[in-house]
Amino acid sequence: MRFPNGWVGGAALIAGPVLLLAGTLLRSPFNFFFPDQLRAVAEHPGLMQAAYTAFLAGNVVMWAAVAYLAHRIGARSPRWAAWGGVLVTIGLFERTFHAGVDQAAFSATGHLGVEGATELVARGYGDLHLFSFLSFTIMFGWFVLAIGTYRGGVLGRVRAVALAAMGLLPLGVLKGTEVLSIVGTVGLCVALVPLGILALREQPPPTRKNVLIAVPVAIGLGALAVLSTMG
Length: 231
Description:
Number of helices: 8
Number of domains: 1
Number of strands: 0
Order of helices and strands: HHHHHHHH
Helix content: over 70%
Shape: globular
Largest sheet: none
Transmembrane segments: 7-26, 46-68, 128-147, 154-173, 179-199, 211-230
Keywords: Membrane, Transmembrane, Transmembrane helix
Strand content: under 5%
Mean pLDDT: 94
Distance between the termini: 35 Å
Radius of gyration: 19 Å
């Protein structure tokens, strides 16, 4: 059995892009750079938390979408599948790392105020870490993957270009929304959501046994999620 299978991959191809677009649009009313983002956190905490959470969730879900996409590419273009999949996945890891820093900055805003948090972030903004050397993957990986989808016959020319637009999405800590952010995430939806729908349609209908197993498993996972918040 392939992992991720068609159910997981298809759902990720839909949910990942939609969540990324939602997060991008939710923070679009506020200026792009981190002092303005922190000020928005103080003035609109619920909205900004929802925006960054949606973007983080979409970024995490995208690993399954990329893995499934790379598998489909690999049937005809294994080298493009391997390089594109690896580079984009590393870029997703880096954006997840940035999201952790974002959350720490949000917490600092609550404890230190906007000025204190802004000063704290500014002091450490340029510090080197592992992902400082891998930032190119965030943008470059999407171009490689997009070429792979076209050469592998997974996407046509227009939707492959739409996928490549994701490489225009700005990167870094506490980055807001620019026009290119919307172009990139809309392009991702155009490229992958129809493929996700197709992947789900290709799957056999779930059996009654599968449904009966899935329900208690989902409830159990939800309970574990709640327990995880208790330290």
